[in-house]
Specification:
The complex is a heterodimer of chains A (264) and B (343). Chain A has 264 residues and is mainly β. Chain A has two helices and eleven strands; from the N terminus they run αβββββββαββββ. Chain A has a ten-stranded antiparallel beta barrel with strand order 1-2-3-4-5-6-7-9-10-11. The longest helix of chain A is centred in the first third of the chain and has 11 residues. In chain B, helix 2 runs parallel beside helix 4. In chain B, the strands form two sheets. Chain B has a seven-stranded mixed β-sheet, sandwiched between helices. In chain B, strands 1, 2, 7, 8, 11 and 12 form a six-stranded antiparallel β-sheet that branches. In chain B, helix 9 links the parallel strand 9 and strand 10. Chain B has eleven helices and 13 strands. Chain B has two domains: 73 residues, 2-Layer Sandwich (Transcription Regulator spoIIAA), CATH 3.30.750; 205 residues, 2-enoyl-CoA Hydratase, Chain A, domain 1 (Alpha-Beta Complex). Classes of the chains: A mainly beta (264), B alpha/beta (343). At the A-B interface, strand 5, helix 2, strand 10 and strand 11 of A face helix 1, helix 2, helix 8, strand 8 and strand 11 of B.
């Protein structure tokens, strides 16, 4: 327990020195990757339609990560924007989705080898966005606003291909508890926003009414003097509150570049 | 240690893959033309969302049993549509529609068997006779009866009007003794537009009705009525006598407009009963892609009563055949006389 409290204290209260993963000798540095990607998207929001809409999605993903305290801790900040266009099974109506995600995480190194690190930690996550149905009249939109505390885990593996160092990473983020915008079963946005009936539209969420998991796998490959990052991101979101079910599932393949900043 | 890390990581990855796979299976949905599945989906959507079952004393289970035997595997799309349309007509609600690629069902009993009380060509002649006539799409205005009475026709609340445009209209009525607002044949539209217009006729924030919503799938699962307020506009206000002309084809947002206007102190309603349509409609769909619309949130009047079947006017007046022959509108003429006679 003391260890957990100490860990949380270090994660969220102290301001550690920056360091960089790739080079132990660099004491302060930052690793920033920006990726763009496309993939598949599936959406079902029973406020809009009882059916699953499927289509494509695109994402811009920016991540900043630092290691510090002799590589035992890492701090990570992710901003991602994703949009999607999906169609109902009859292919005569579209849902357009747009979401912005921001997360701020601290990780602690559980185990480490010469080329392998396993980290776990917590992140604060904010999501805002909407799903817009092109055919619905008075209920065309389902807004999503979530603030969560996540369990986050991260594994890094370094190996060589043709003598070049390659870093493979796997990360998962699982919301544990939070609050989200949860309108009542049949309430209209006219009643919420025009008439001002905001009572009970913000609800506590946890596993009893929401399950979400975001995982991504990236591979950093040095190309000349730069680093190419290839990635795959899976995002799963499910909520069931006030008899309104929402499922959002996306798989995105991404590509981008990683920049290293020396701060010492 | 390295081996244990790899095992741990593999487990996590495998678990993630399983979760995503299961999720993908659950999300599977296919285009479905089965008449049975579409019938059941239509019935269930209404069963869980429609808001007037109890008020209208509709036994929805009995309705299911009545129409279910008409469904067969071999029926055509048109035949299925006719069954679904007939089933939804049992709700006697102009806000309930089934819309396929080629067909549209709508209950019209709310206006079909009532006098029209409206003749557009006669109204147009008033514009020609009047002074300072103007228009903004669905909104026309003119000064009648030797400039003493203002007249506005608002034909649809789908048409929004800017505050600045409303200011110009009310500027045009400067010096008039009274105002006629004609919303006959206004089939509704946006409540925001009707509220914007109504906000010109009061001095202080007023409770003008209530709204409820479904809080669950049961027929009685409703929230407590939540008050709807009307606030005075920052623009020109009209606080002199007003007569609102109504007929049976005032529906939905127009019915709501009349419900709000009639509680204001200087306002009277004249003409025929409105058509109702007080349920705020939502849209959804069937597995075959057909659109379905239905009332979900009852909007109540200031006395917390339903206005789903219409609002009776303060002064009942019918368009007389004699007046039609003389190219006169009985409702407008009566309203002018009443406004000129008012203090």
């Amino acid at each position: 327990m003391k260890r957990i409290i100490g860990y949380l204290w270090v994660c969220f209260v102290t301001h550690p020195l920056l360091a960089q993963y790739h080079n132990e000798e660099i004491q302060r540095g930052m690793n920033e990757g920006t990726l763009i990607g496309i993939g598949t998207s599936q959406i079902r929001d029973t406020y809009l339609s009882p059916f699953n809409y499927a289509g494509w999605g695109a994402r811009i993903f920016n991540e900043r990560m630092t290691f510090f305290r002799e590589m035992r801790f890492s701090r990570q900040q992710i901003i991602s924007v994703d949009i999607s266009s999906t169609e109902n099974p009859a292919e005569n109506v579209n849902d357009f989705g747009a979401f912005v995600n921001y997360s701020f995480a601290y990780h602690y190194r559980l185990q480490a080898g010469a080329n392998f690190r396993l980290l776990t930690g917590a992140s604060a996550h904010l999501m805002g966005g909407f799903i817009y149905n092109t055919r619905n009249g008075n209920n065309p939109l389902s807004a999503k606003v979530d603030v969560d505390l996540n369990f986050s885990f991260l594994a890094l593996y370094r190996f060589r291909i043709n003598g070049r160092p390659v870093v493979l990473r796997y990360q998962g983020d699982l919301p544990l508890v939070g609050v989200f915008f949860a309108p009542h079963y049949g309430i209209s946005y006219y009643e919420i926003f025009n008439a001002g009936n905001m009572a009970d539209v913000i609800k506590l969420n946890s596993f009893h009414n929401k399950f979400s998991l975001k995982t991504h796998v990236t591979m950093d490959i040095p190309v000349h003097n730069a680093t190419l990052r290839l990635g795959y991101l899976s995002s799963l979101y499910h909520s069931d509150i006030n008899d309104i079910k929402t499922h959002i599932l996306s798989n995105t393949f991404m590509i981008g570049w990683v920049k290293q900043f020396m701060l010492r | 240690m390295r081996r244990s890390c790899i095992t741990y990581l593999s487990c996590l990855f495998f678990l993630t893959a399983v979760i995503f796979f299961c999720w993908g299976c659950e999300m599977e949905d296919e285009f479905e033309t089965s008449p049975f599945r579409n019938f059941e989906a239509c019935w269930k959507l209404l069963d869980e969302n429609y808001c007037f079952f109890d008020y209208k004393e509709v036994d929805w289970n009995a309705t299911h049993d009545k129409y279910f035997p008409m469904i067969t595997d071999s029926m055509t799309e048109h035949e299925l549509f006719q069954v679904l349309a007939s089933m939804t007509l049992e709700l006697q609600d102009g806000h309930v529609n089934v819309v396929s690629k080629y067909f549209f069902s709508s209950y019209e009993g709310w206006f079909q068997y009532y006098p029209a009380n409206f003749n557009w060509s006669i109204i147009q002649s008033y514009y020609q006779k009047g002074a300072r006539a103007g228009d903004y799409d669905e909104i026309r205005y003119v000064r009648l009866s030797s400039d003493r009475i203002g007249y506005i026709y608002y034909g649809s609340f789908n048409e929004s009007i800017l505050e600045s445009e409303l200011n110009k209209i009310f500027d045009a009525f400067e010096g008039c003794k009274g105002l006629i607002i004609d919303v006959r044949d206004n089939g509704g539209g946006s409540l925001t537009n009707s509220d914007r217009f109504a906000s010109r006729f009061l001095e202080e924030k007023t409770v003008c009705g209530y709204i409820q919503h479904k809080i669950g799938k049961g027929h009685q699962d409703f929230s407590e009525p939540f008050p709807l307020y009307l606030e005075p506009s920052d623009g020109n206000l009209w606080l002199k006598p007003v007569i609102v002309l109504t007929n049976r084809r005032c529906f939905s947002a127009a019915n709501n407009f009349v419900s709000k206007m009639r509680i204001l102190p200087n306002v009277r309603t004249l003409g025929g009963s409105t058509g109702g349509g007080s349920g705020f409609p939502f849209t959804s769909e069937l597995p075959n892609g057909w659109r379905i619309r239905f009332s979900t949130s009852p909007i109540l009047d200031v006395d917390k009563q339903h206005t789903e079947f219409g609002i009776a006017p303060d002064i009942p007046v019918t368009l007389s055949p004699d007046d039609i022959e003389r190219n006169k509108d009985t409702l407008i003429e009566t309203a002018i006389q009443l406004l000129l006679a008012s203090d």
